[in-house]
Amino acid sequence: MKVLSIQSHVAYGHVGNASAVFPMQRLGVEVWPVHTVQFSNHTGYGTWRGRVFDGPAVEEVVQGVAERGALRDCDAVLSGYMGSADIGTAILRAVAAVRAANAAAVYCCDPVIGDTHAGVYVRPGIADFMRAQAVPAADILTPNQFELDLIAGRATDTLEGAKAAVAAVQALGPRVVLVTSLATAETPSDAIDMLAGEGGTFWRVRTPRLDLKAVSGAGDAVAALYLVHYLRTRSAALALGMAAASIHGLLRRTAEAGAEELLTVAAQEEFVAPTRAFPVEAV
Fold it and tell me: Between the CA of residue 194 and those of 32, 168, 183, what are the distances in Å?
């Protein structure tokens, strides 16, 4: 399996491609990473160094890969944080190029817009670009609950509300939607849910809440894990269970160590042989 992953990258820590690429490689996937930024560390630290690349720079790298004749072997494109609309345009052009070379290729979009605690943290116009252009182009979408609400234009306080929001997003284009973190009125206070929808059917996985410091990059990792498992199983439900087990294992190891960055390398066995599995239930 070969995946073109177009995301931000950091030298220190694990966000963007630095969080998504290694789990896919550990699962035996050949990954072609294209970086939209090259930073020393993620911006949550308050200070960082490095460069932001523009859309043409991203397109140039993808063109070079295409010139190797490789795009016909590309099974999927994965995208995450888009720093600007021209980066988004470059990503969608890459998706179009891959699909032209391989009609069976899948586009998985992690629509990074914000979260419940911070609100919208992307530049003005990115949220609109996501909803108007990136979401309709995607086969698989992996929003968190905040992003689901924003894209669907409705609240998800209940499970039925979340299912309705997923259906509304699917009507925009994606056939599979994974909600990477969900807390509704039905979710116990000591747990967190993940919800997947495909073809009018919905599945939920519930995992224990962890005493975890604020770490970045978990969403990037779970999108990558879900994409790989979905490509292999073609089952939204099976992919949900596998991805949930691995991300819980990674976060548990990180919490136990009291680490401020994901223990992506130290906990790598969780990607291939998770310590604990969780039931997947139709809802």
Answer: 28, 17, 9
Rounded-to-integer distance, Cα 276 and Cα 96, Å: 38
Q: How far is CA 151 from the centre of its chain?
A: 15
51 phi/psi in degrees, rounded to 5:
-125, 150
CA 269 to chain centre: 20
Find residue 77's DSSP bridge partners. 4, 107
pLDDT tens readout for residues 80-92: 988 888 999 999 9
Which H or E element spans position 94?
helix 85-101
Q: Pull the structure tokens for residue 65.
A: 């890969």
d(CA 240, CA 178): 8
Q: Which of the 8 DSSP states describes residue 164? A: H
Write down the number of H helices and E strands in the chain.
Answer: 10, 12
Provide the strand spans (E) within 68-115.
Answer: 76-79, 106-109, 114-115
The residues that bridge with 115 in the sheet, in sequence order, are: 119
What mean pLDDT is reported for the chain? 96
126 SS3 class: helix
